Each structure stands twice: as structure tokens, then as C-alpha cells.
Amino acid sequence: MRILFINGPNLNLLGRRETGIYGRTSLAEIKKRVMQRARALRVTVVFLQSNHEGELVDHIGAASGRYEAIVINPAAYTHTSIALRDAIAAVGLPTVEIHLSNIHAREDFRHRSLTAPVCAGQICGFGPNSYLLGLEAAVLLAKTVGKQP
Ligand code: DQA
Fold first, then answer.
1. pTM passes above 0.90
2. Is it the case that residue 80 has pLDDT exceeding 70?
3. Ligand 1, closest atom to CA 106?
4. What residue's CA is closest to ligand 1, atom 12?
């Protein structure tokens, strides 16, 4: 099974970016933890990050037939990007939206996710563990695609 992890803008700055909100764990360290858990679950993970909306759209669009599920932290594009939402809907792969912070407990503009309605579900507020929970959810989803929940 292959799972695609997609990270949006500014997540490359994790570890030194607004540490009171996002903590001191870097994206490289999060990737290491995800890869470790993926090995234990015997799944292959491809983990990428981009600050560019169009590049993220391209990665999602190319995922069909190559991955069984997507885990995405769209970062600020969560709240603004119809293009990302349409890409997720178009590709039709089971997708899990994740966030480090609890976006519902923050500023009003973060409460609305344009991408969540086309995802299977959303995991937020667990810091780096949102990534591990996202992985578990994606594996379960991919295993049960087309079956009754
Ligand atoms: C975030 C939450 C977003 O609102 C914010 O723009 C981010 C990070 C998170 O992981 O908590 O960049 O997606």
C-alpha cells in the first residue's frame, strides 16, 4: 500500500515558526516518525512539502493509480483554496486532512476548511501526532474502500 503525504505552505519552517502554537518539532523530524510508523505498518509513504498552490494541485492530480490514499496538511490553503479542494474531489482517493493545531480553537478565519468537505475526515490539534493519526486513518480507509464502514 502506498500513501502520499502532502504538506502546504510554511510547514517547512516547523520547529522555528510560531513555536507557541506549532511546537519545536521540525518537519524533518515529523517525517522520520511517519516513516518509522509506516515501516511498522508495512506501508510505503511518500512525504512532500511545497509552498506553491499549483505544485500541490499537480501532486494531488498525479496521485491517482499511484497511491491508495492521501494525507494532507494544506496549511493556510485549507482556508482559501478552491483549487486544492477541486483537486482532491477530482482524484477521488480517500483523503485525510490533518493539522497540528486545533484550527477550531483559533481565529475565526481558521474555523472554515474549504478542503475538509471533500476529505473522508479531519484530524487536528494533536501536534506532530496528528500525522501519525492521519497515517493510521489513511491505512484503515484504504483497506476498506468500497466496503461498508
Ligand atoms: C495548520 C493550521 C493552518 O491554519 C495554518 O495556516 C498552518 C498550519 C496546522 O497544521 O495547524 O499553516 O495547517
1. yes
2. yes
3. 4
4. 75
Which residue's alpha carbon is nearest to atom 8 within ligand 1?
75
On whether the CB atoms of residues 134 and 125 are closer than 8 A, the answer is: no
Domains for the chain: give ranges and CATH numbers.
2-144 (3.40.50.9100)
Q: What distance in Å separates the CA atoms of residue 102 and residue 104, rounded to the nearest whole number? A: 5
Tell which residue, 53, 107, 117, has the closest CA to residue 81.
Answer: 53
Residue 35 grid coordinates: 516513516
Q: Is 99 in the pocket of ligand 1 (CB under 6 A)?
A: yes
82-93 residue pLDDT tens: 999 999 999 999
Q: How far is CA 128 from the centre of its chain?
A: 12
User: Three cell numbers at 1?
Assistant: 500500500
Q: Measure the CA–CA gap between 94 and 134, rounded to whole angstroms.
A: 12
Q: How far is the C-alpha of 59 from the C-alpha of 75, rounded, in Å?
A: 16
CA of 147 to the centre of ligand 1 (A): 32
Place of cell 501526532: 129
- For residues 3 and 33, what is the distance between their CA atoms, to the nearest angstrom? 15
Task: Give the other-Cβ count within 10 Å of 76's Cβ.
Answer: 15
Ligand 1 in reach of 100 Cβ (< 6 A): yes
